[in-house]
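Bumping my old thread because nobody answered last time. Still need a sequence for this structure:
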């Protein structure tokens, strides 16, 4: 395993937050490279050379750049032997099914909710109708997760992936009413985020991205020292 630091291409309070949390939990050296969304730097040629889809995050590694949040998490866990069961360990299959559920089901549904114009076109009524339908899907997905989410003494890549998504549901879209989502209605998920907020990895992310003292259970709009969350 190399001691060479990684480079995390990030924007504040984006999916790169998930990877920052994992890197902090692993206590491995890494650098950050700001992808400034305010000037659409994610569409610049130098970023597209790393991620042809023009999305965030990208993690540069000695084996080349990796994109897709779930893929980066799994690669880091396997490289460092922490945060997830190894390839032949008991619990590996269980971890994989929930990792893909988070990535392919919940995270994908959040993208529809946050960016309705990309899926419903420019008509505002169509966008609102799509968001209304998507809310019910999100609540159903979270109910499934809450039923099956175990309490862990130390976080796994699953906790680190889910907690930021729970944060975003309470903050975004910024011009929306968020009364429909109450984290306390999901006791297992609320307990997980409360525990996670005590960890040094979360405190490091708070300082780096301006997330506030309770980034998951009572989130505030970010005030990052550099870059833009949107």
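Sorry it took so long. Here it is:
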């Amino acid at each position: 395993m190399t001691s060479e630091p990684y480079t995390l291409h990030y924007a504040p309070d984006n999916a790169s937050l998930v990877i920052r949390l994992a890197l902090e939990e692993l206590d491995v050296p890494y650098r950050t490279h700001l992808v400034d969304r305010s000037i659409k730097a994610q569409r610049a040629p130098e970023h597209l050379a790393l991620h042809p889809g023009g999305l965030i995050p990208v993690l540069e590694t000695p084996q080349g750049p990796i994109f897709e949040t779930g893929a980066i998490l799994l690669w880091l866990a396997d490289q460092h032997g922490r945060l997830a069961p190894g390839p032949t360990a008991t619990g590996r299959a269980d971890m994989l099914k929930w990792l893909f559920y988070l990535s392919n089901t919940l995270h994908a549904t959040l993208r529809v909710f946050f960016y309705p114009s990309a899926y419903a076109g420019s008509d505002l009524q169509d966008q609102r109708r799509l968001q209304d339908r998507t809310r019910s899907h999100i609540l159903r997905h979270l109910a499934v997760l809450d039923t099956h989410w175990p309490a862990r003494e130390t976080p796994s890549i699953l906790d680190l992936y889910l907690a930021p998504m729970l944060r975003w549901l309470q903050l975004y879209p910024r011009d929306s009413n968020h009364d429909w989502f109450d984290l306390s209605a999901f006791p297992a998920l609320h307990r997980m985020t409360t525990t996670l907020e005590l960890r040094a990895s979360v405190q490091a992310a708070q300082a780096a991205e301006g997330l506030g003292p309770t980034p998951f259970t009572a989130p505030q709009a970010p005030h990052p020292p550099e870059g833009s969350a949107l």
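The chain has a mean pLDDT of 95. Let me know if any region looks off to you.
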